[in-house]
Amino acid sequence: TPRTTRVRSDGTTMADDAAVTAEVEARKGSVTSLVTQKNYVGALTAALADPEKVLASKNADVKSANAAVVFQVIDAVEDKEIDGVLEGLDPLVMDLLMKYVYKGLSTPENANSLLKWHAKVLERAGPGGIVRAMTDRKTV
Amino acid sequence: MIVTCAHDRNAFVWTYSDGVWNPSLVILRIEYAAIDCKWSPDGRKFAVASGAKCVPVCHYEEENSWWVSKMIKKPHKSTVLCVAWHPNSQLIATGSSDFKCRLFSAYVEATDDSQDMGPLAGENPASFAEMYHDWSANGWVHCVDWSPSGNVLAFGAHDSSLHVVTFGGGAPVTQVVRFTFLPLCTVKFISDAAILGGGHDCNPAVFANIGAGWAFSEFCDKKPAAEKKAEVATSGAAAARAMFQNKTKTGQTQSKESMNDNSWQKHQSPVTFMQQLNPASSTCSEFSTTALDGRIAVWKLPEMDLNHGAMGL
Asked: Which of A117, B64, B118, B272 is a plausible cystine mate for B88, CB 3.0–4.6 Å?
């Protein structure tokens, strides 16, 4: 079998990794342009859209790269605009955002703004959202 | 008769005669704890959820005057946490810590007359211990229950979700309700359109099917209207005095009103079990809840401040 389709011991292939890396790159491109246009709702929606490949991937670099795209939006939004950005966000997307907030809080950078996001997402998703962020085996 | 089971891997069936309850040991043949046990609706069998990744289903054998167990084993991958019998006493739903809820055939030729497929009318009849369907959740499946009509199955998982499966000819349709509060430990249908969930929020929650699908409706226990608010001192000596007064009264430094005070709730600890109290009928008018705080509370639905119409009551 060609090297790219040989299945590794964890069930992934090089081709899978290449596909998801390409997807993350494309997402980074569209999110960066949306952030420069100050369309934060669009940027957040684009950053959190189609998460299945990243969630299923076992490659830590890919997950970090995708998380960086999400944090790019989180950093750009000012504290007083967070409510507006979260308004009308789909509940499933809200749960995914909570996972990213916890991932971001695992390192000391940006703790201040992430804690504000945590409080705002908690108002909407409730402790149930935190439970789902903690219990889901598919991690970000 | 009462059936009891324990972490000592045994189950007893108790019969009452002359003012005394007499236990009779049931050999379950499990090497790990028994977690939950339920009588079948017709009272002729009982099922035990166990840590041995299996469910012994026991029926009485007249010739030897003892309860015999048959195992439902495959494909549980971990502890079975809960079992629920379908109203026809021939189907069992199990919830497990391997994140799945499964539906098995529990048709025992020795005790049951003819095989009744219940809500699975279009499917091929399976023999005892064969699995019909399974459903996945993102957490341990703590609780499972059938609707009074037997056409709907609900199970609660530890990811703060309630899964409701409707059988109606064709493939079963699942709806997942992801709610904003803490996970459920116990779930009970009170009518075909309403489910009660008790869990780590210490307050039974009502989920209703209001046409557009199942959704969380309201909590049963409502905070009583606030009495006259006491003045809260905020500065200087008065605040310091208030802090020490509160420490002696409630053990906390802030006043009752400013904290998340849940002493108004009937239960102060997670609700672990709910049971219908009114005689068997397709709707529940009275139910009891037990919780880890050692209290048993009895709730009378018609007298409670709830949206009864939406609940089909």
From this structure: B118
- Residue in B138, B178, B181 closest to A127 by CB: B181
Interface residues from chain A to B (CB-CB < 8 Å): 91-92, 95, 124-129, 131-132, 135-137
CB neighbours of B261 closer than 8 A, spacing ≥ 6?
none
Distance, in angstroms, between B136 CA and closest chain A CA? 12
Question: Which segments of B109-169 are extended strands (E)?
Answer: 131-136, 141-146, 152-157, 161-166
- pLDDT tens sequence across B40-83: 999 999 999 999 999 999 999 999 999 999 999 999 999 999 99
B268 in contact with A, Cβ within 8 Å: no
Taking contacts as CB-CB distances below 8 angstroms, the residues of chain B near A128 are 160, 178-183
Residues of B in contact with A129 (CB under 8 A): 160, 180
Shortest distance, CA A98 to any CA of chain B (angstroms): 13
ipTM metric: 0.89
Has residue B200 got a pLDDT over 90?
Answer: yes
Q: In chain B, how many H helices and how many E strands?
A: 1, 22
CB spacing of A125 vs B158 below 8 angstroms = no
CB pairs under 8 A between A and B: 39
* Radius of gyration for chain A, computed over Cα atoms and rounded to the nearest angstrom: 16
Q: How far apart are CA B37 and CA B46, in angstroms?
A: 7
Whole-number Å distance between alpha carbons of B145 and B83: 8
- Which of A127, A135, A137 is facing B158, going by the closest CB pair? A135
pLDDT tens-digit map of A105-125: 999 988 999 999 999 999 999
Q: How far apart are CA B205 and CA A87, in angstroms?
A: 26
Using one digit for the tens of pLDDT, what is the confidence trace for A40-77? 999 999 999 999 999 999 999 999 999 999 999 999 99
User: Are B138 and A91 within 8 A, CB to CB?
Assistant: no
Degrees to nearest 5, angle at CA B144 with A99 and A132 = 5
Q: What is the predicted pLDDT for the residue at B228?
A: 55
β partners of residue B215: B208
Nearest to B216 by CA among B75, B291, B84, B311: B311
Residue A105 CA to residue A93 CA, distance in Å, equals 18
